[in-house]
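Table S2 (text version). Query chain:
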Amino acid sequence: MKQRKSALAEFAPEEAQRAAPRAGADEPGASHFQGLNGHDISQEAASVWAELRSLELLDHVAELEVLGLTVIPPEKVGLPVATVRDKLLEVCERRYGGRPDYTGESTPQEANNPFGRLVSFLALEDPLFQEVLLNRTVLALATQQLGRNCVLSAFQALLKARGGQALDLHVDELIAPAPYAVHNDSINVTIPLTDYTRDNGPLAYVPGSHKYMRRPVGREGWEQRVKVLAPAGSAIIWPRHTWHGAFAGTAPGLRLNLTLVYARPHLRTLEDYRNKLTQADLERNPPRFAKLMGRHISYGWQQEGPVLDGSETLIGSTAYN
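Corresponding structure-token output:
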């Protein structure tokens, strides 16, 4: 049987650059107000498709759509796991006065609960964390799910020990009422820094639960939970309305991860990075870093009013903008 080709199977990245100009590009003042005059979604769609295909991520996009969660294997993510893990332990030692022994029996007291110890505001702790934030594979899916204007809402880590109770099923829509929007407003990217095994309290989720567009009620979904098993260096991604939690751990040592939340720019971020950046941070990284930090958003003005100089301070409404 002849294999059916996708409508974009032969659409090369360079062709995407030659696609039709933005709507309204010939209108007076269009160069200053692209956010108001529209966005060429066909060019963006082709570009996003080409990037996903080149990184072999199309199956993961399908899993996000159907199952509400996907696990990208370490070889596709390409992070230096041991180096990132050591840097996280250095931060813990600097902040809390002791370097956790993640392989042994001695664990921080805060880690012996369903949530574990939460280590927040990590993106500016070290340039290595900024490399994680800008990981090409992760950004490709963040762009497909949330658009190129997406921002970093949180960059955290979790240290979780064995024992205690399982973490109940929940969604990451913290204060928004149901029913939730049909498009994703944010995604969770969890990067295990130790293997997620059956015994160390792995992530739990309910396949397809993101389609409910609401949080679980009571013990709803408890019997449908599945364990998310993933080696260190994977990227586990789900939209904010997938029902998820964690199983109780029984293995010795700590389960370590990084948790990054990418969000659409109209949302209030969990962590405030925009006004904490140094010039060195901006110069060391590509332009996408400044956008992830929210530097393109002028919301929050006072007497000076908004900036209307074509610097993308007004957020477009298309899927990939």
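Notes on Table S2: The chain is about 25% helix and 20% strand. The radius of gyration is 21 Å.
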